[in-house]
Amino acid sequence: MPTYEYVCTKCGHELEAFQSMKDEALKKCPICKKPGLKRQVGGGAGLIFKGSGFYITDYKKKAGTPDAKATAPKAPATPAAK
Fold this sequence. Notes:
Blueprint: E1 3-8, E2 14-18, E3 37-39, H1 68-71
Antiparallel strand pairs: 1-2, 1-3
């Protein structure tokens, strides 16, 4: 269940509410008791990856496979003089 951020337009009180996505948005401020709460657009939390395939050690170079950096052609460091 997501956490929603609210701000009261009457008194300026800010709060967070842990609600289901199906729940109706809150309307009444718990401080001033007036119907002035507005749901804020939040950035949300970062993604949480669970399981294999999400760690750098899962993609380690296997023994006997060529390194991609070693096979790439190198560009000259300085431009050629005329």
